[in-house]
Amino acid sequence: MQNKLRRSYKDRAISGVCGGIAEFFGISSLGIRILFIILPLNLLIYIILANTIPDSPPSL
Length: 60
Known about the structure:
- The chain is an all-alpha fold.
- 50% of the residues lie in helices and 0% in strands.
- It has one domain (1-53).
- The radius of gyration is 11 Å and the shape is globular.
- The mean pLDDT is 87.
């Protein structure tokens, strides 16, 4: 099964973008959040990703 990029339902701080990226690459979401803090234009990138990446379905 292919892993798809989706916003995380479990690892969600604001909208689940960083958690979803971390689940996709199999790394810690803290590392992704630190990258978003360091990168320039981070707020614009985050807003674009939050509106374009679909939600993951809730798990039981």
